[in-house]
Each structure stands twice: as structure tokens, then as C-alpha cells.
Specification:
alpha+beta; 6-stranded mixed β-sheet; binds dinuclear copper ion; about 40% strand; 5-stranded mixed β-sheet; elongated; about 160 residues; Immunoglobulin-like
């Protein structure tokens, strides 16, 4: 009798585990399909050859709306192009970054901006710039990319008027 009881408990626990896994998978499926959440692997892709030729993602800074800046950046062993970015009274900066060669990492020191840059992909990150951010910020490559890795840096200048 005791054995039968234990077997019953086994089945109950197996049932609970299956129910938990099913719930988890249903939530995951709902979030990814219905809500459109994706893994970074499905980010915007691009042709590295076109990037090298400068046919896509022309590097530069432009103000697309008052206080909204779009920054196109190219990573290359061992430089950021451009390596100096200047914005005035920014509310939001939209970074679009890609690599011409290997994997790099874009990090603006002292800010939450920190992401990886892959060849063949355009990383797009938006940063809502808090009002107290002003001055010169160092940005670096934080992904080892070869001999000149430590020389791969630039500056973001935030001006307030
Ligand atoms: Cu680029 Cu390290």
C-alpha cells in the first residue's frame, strides 16, 4: 500500500514539472511571437563588402529632430569612424554601428551604453541622455580585437546650451 502511495506521488510531481515546463514554453512562445521579442541574432544584417566600400551606413552625426541625434559609426581594426562625436542638448542618441572586419565592443565610459559590434550586423541602440550628462566622455572598444585594440577609442562631447 505504501509503495502505491509513493508511486502516486511520483506521478503527481512528474505532472507538476510537465505543467511548469508547458507554462514556461507557452509564455516564451507568446512573448517571442505575439509580442515580437527577438534574440539579437535576428538584428539587421548588412553586407560587409558594402560597408567597406562606404555604400551603406555612412559614418557621421546628424540631428534628425530637435535633440534627437543619429550617430552612424563604423568599427575597424583599430579605430572608430568617426572617433569624435559632438552633440548639443541631446535628448536621445540613436547609435547605428557595424564592423568592417572582426567583433568589436562599443562602450561609452560612465554611461549605460555598452554593446557588441559584429561584422555583417548593424547594431542599433537608443540612449535617452539624462540632462545632467555634459562634457567629454571616452568611448572605447571593450572586445579584444588584435594588437591595436587598446588604441581603439574616441570621444563623445555633450554640450549644453
Ligand atoms: Cu576593437 Cu578591440
Amino acid at each position: 500500500m505504501a509503495e502505491k502511495n509513493e508511486l502516486m506521488q511520483e506521478y503527481i510531481w512528474i505532472g507538476i514539472i510537465i505543467a511548469m515546463l508547458t507554462t514556461f514554453l507557452v509564455i516564451l512562445g507568446y512573448v517571442s511571437e505575439a509580442k515580437g521579442f527577438d534574440t539579437p541574432s535576428s538584428a539587421v544584417t548588412c553586407d560587409v563588402r558594402q560597408v567597406r566600400k562606404g555604400e551603406i551606413l555612412t559614418p557621421g552625426v546628424k540631428e534628425v529632430a530637435p535633440g534627437i541625434y543619429e550617430v552612424n559609426l563604423k568599427a575597424r581594426m583599430w579605430a572608430w569612424i568617426p572617433n569624435s562625436i559632438e552633440v548639443v542638448n541631446p535628448k536621445k542618441i540613436i547609435f547605428k554601428v557595424t564592423s568592417e572586419d572582426v567583433v568589436h565592443g562599443f562602450q561609452i565610459v560612465g554611461t549605460p551604453v555598452n554593446f557588441m559590434v559584429f561584422p555583417g550586423y548593424i547594431a542599433e541602440i537608443q540612449w535617452e541622455v539624462p540632462e545632467d550628462f555634459e562634457g567629454t566622455y571616452l568611448f572605447v572598444c571593450n572586445e579584444y580585437c588584435g594588437l591595436g585594440h587598446d588604441t581603439m577609442w574616441g570621444q563623445l562631447i555633450i554640450k549644453r546650451e
